Amino acid sequence: MWHLKDLLDGVLESVQSAQMLVADTNSWLEGLLPVVVEYRRLGFVLQDFFRHELELNRQQMENEEEKKGETSIDINPHNLCRRYLAEPEKLLNGDMDLIVLAGDIWTGGMETTLTSIRWAILFFTQNPDVQEKLHEEIMKRYPRRSSGQFSFSTRHELPYLCAVMDEVLRLANVLPWNISHHALKTFKLNEHTMKGGS
Ligand code: HEM
Question: What is the largest CA-CA distance in the chain?
C-alpha cells in the first residue's frame, strides 16, 4: 500500500510542478523537462501496479469459480475491478480501460478529495465556531443512526455544509491550475467553432 501511496505522491507532485505548467503550454519541451519525464515514468509504473492488481483479482475469481460450493475467501465481491471482470464485454479497450479508470479514481478522485478534507480540517482549527455550527446542523438533521443517509442528492438539507464545502474549495489549493486540453478535430459548440488542434 505504501508503494501505491509513494507513486501517487510522485505523480501529483509532478503534475503540480512549475515544469509541468511550462510543458502544458509548450508541448515541444516535454521530453526535455526532467519532471515531465519522471511523471511519464511514474505513470507507467502506476499502470503496472493496477495491471498486477487486476491480475490478482482475476486469478482469485477463477479460483473461486473452481471452488464453487466450497467456502471461498471473498475479500470484497463488490469492488469495481470485480464488477468489470464479471462483465468484460463492457471494457471496450480491454484491461487498459480498467487500468486507466483506476488511475483516474486514485489520482483524480482520491487525492483531490483527501487534499480538500485536509484543508477543511486546517480551516476548522482556525475557525472553531464554523466547526461547531456545522456540527450542530449535522446533528439536527441526523440525530440518530436511523435518521437516514447523507448523499449528494440530499445535500440541500444541509445548506451550511454546502456553504462550508464551497468556501473550502474556494480557498484551498487543491489543483493549482487546470488540466490542459486540446481539440482532436474541429467542432461547433452552440455558436462557437473550436478548431482542431487548438
Ligand atoms: C474535491 C474533490 C475534487 C476536486 C477539487 C477536483 C478538481 C478537479 C479539477 C480542477 C479538474 C480539472 C478540470 C479541467 O481542467 O478541465 C479535475 C478533473 C478531473 N477530475 Fe476531479 N476533482 C475532485 C474530485 C474528483 C473525483 C471524486 C473524481 C473521480 C472519482 C475526479 C476525476 C476527475 C477526472 C477524471 C478529471 C479529468 C477530466 C478531463 O480530463 O477533462 N475528480 N478535477
Answer: 63
CA nearest to 116, candidates 176, 177, 174: 174
Q: Is the CB of 173 under 6 A from ligand 1?
A: no
Q: What residue segments make up the domains of the chain, in order of their start?
A: 2-194
The residues that bridge with 189 in the sheet, in sequence order, are 192
Residue owning the nearest CA to atom 3 of ligand 1: 112
Q: Is 180 in the pocket of ligand 1 (CB under 6 A)?
A: no
Task: Look at residues 157, 160, 155, 172 and name the one whose alpha carbon lies nearest to residue 121.
Answer: 172
Owner of C-alpha cell 469495481: 80
pLDDT over 70 (residue 69)? no
Fold assignment, 2-194: Cytochrome p450 (1.10.630)
Number of Cβ within a 10 Å radius of residue 42: 19
Amino acid at the residue 149: Q
The residue contributing the CA closest to ligand 1 atom 27 is 109
Whether the predicted pLDDT of 70 surpasses 60: no
pLDDT value, residue 194: 93
Is the CB–ligand 1 distance for residue 73 below 6 Å? no
